[in-house]
Amino acid sequence: MALFMPRRLARFTAQAFSQDHFWTRVGSTVAASNRRPRIIASPHREMRLCATIWMRPRITLLKSDDSRLIEGITMARLYDSRKRIIVTGGAGFLGSHLMDRLISRGHEVICIDNFFTGTKKNIEHLKDKWNFEFIRHDVTLPMSYEADEIYNLACPASPTHYQHDPIQTTRTSVLGALNILDLATRLKCRVLQASTSEIYGDPEIHPQVETYWGNVNPIGPRSCYDEGKRCAETLFFDYRRQYGLRVKVARIFNTYGTRMHPADGRVVSNFVLQALRGDPITIFGQGSQTRSFCYVDDLVEGLIRLMESDEGVTGPINLGNPDEFTIRELAEMVIEQVGSSSKIVFEPLPQDDPRQRQPDISQAKALLGWEPKVKLRDGLARTIEFFRESILPGYAPS
């Protein structure tokens, strides 16, 4: 039987450009389509010019009946339902879970991250996936890639991280949004902004609806994050009005789950780690302030539904779990589930810490058919198990 390789199949071999093998390497093979092979240039000093990949070999055609015997995995773009998707901040807690879901659906996913708060460990399991590609890049610098959709998740989201370098945090929110929007405008693709419930500041209405403009201190220690995200939302809707860009904006409320950074300063990771180590559980204030906690799997589903929604659905749309708990209730639940001997201690409340935070998700239900499914107790059990197995044995504060 006569076999032949398709005429338009081009092969490019990329090299590992540093001792950090995969993390500064992109690809091994590219299947040519009507477009010329795309070239990536990264400003990261360890990366050199290299060709991107979209498939692993091999495609073999059977000449006799022109049917296809596919050996290996072919390009996702052979199928109309599959997309090439950029996720900025993909090595972070939320981004890595989003990429897992997109990759499992057969999409080609390009992760862009500079590892400021994201970690290699979060995406280690993806490096051999045929439809995954990693590019080390800072979103505050211009970029030129190809995609059908872009999820912009690049920004430190925990107080510990965004207050470490507040100016860079603002740069990431504002310049990152501008660069992502410019790229989306050139590509004429959909783009989703991962905004935040911090938009509402210390809210004066409860629960918070999307039409509420917020109560935010513009010069406080949290302002770099709050105002940066508010400015990014402004840019997204200005690009829609001025250029007709297809934008989506999600306002994300407290999210927790596996792959949370142990030193991110967020209440769930703090409490779980303290309880597992038998340390005192630190509550700021009297613990009467309330929060709503959404498990990461639910949140990811909401983001994807928003991206895939009708073009008229732009948001902002609240994504979070409307079940409300006091911080003290959360601490007691963690202690109980861990089986810890930890005691609760109280510290002064930080400046601008919100008293209440609860999403009104009426729009998400009506427009996306979305609402969270995982109860706090169940999500905590998964998170505690992750910390017990993956974090605690080798944990050293940083």
UniProtKB/TrEMBL annotation:
Gene Ontology process terms (BP): D-xylose metabolic process; UDP-D-xylose biosynthetic process
Subcellular location: Cytoplasm; Golgi apparatus, Golgi stack membrane
GO cellular component, one term: cytoplasm
This enzyme's EC code(s): 4.1.1.35
Keyword Membrane attached: yes
Main localization category: cytoplasm
Domain called NAD(P)-binding: residue spans: 86-382
Secreted found in the keyword field: no
Cofactors: NAD(+)
Annotated membrane topology: Single-pass type II membrane protein
InterPro entries, sorted: NAD(P)-bd_dom, NAD(P)-bd_dom_sf, UXS-like
Pathway(s) it belongs to: Nucleotide-sugar biosynthesis; UDP-alpha-D-xylose biosynthesis; UDP-alpha-D-xylose from UDP-alpha-D-glucuronate: step 1/1
Gene Ontology terms for molecular function: NAD+ binding; UDP-glucuronate decarboxylase activity
Lineage: superkingdom: Bacteria
Sorted UniProt keywords: Cytoplasm, Decarboxylase, Golgi apparatus, Lyase, Membrane, NAD, Signal-anchor, Transmembrane, Transmembrane helix
PANTHER family named among the record's database cross-references: UDP-GLUCURONIC ACID DECARBOXYLASE 1 (PTHR43078:SF6), UDP-GLUCURONIC ACID DECARBOXYLASE-RELATED (PTHR43078)
Family: Belongs to the NAD(P)-dependent epimerase/dehydratase family. UDP-glucuronic acid decarboxylase subfamily.
Protein name, as recorded: UDP-glucuronate decarboxylase
Biological source species: Aureimonas pseudogalii
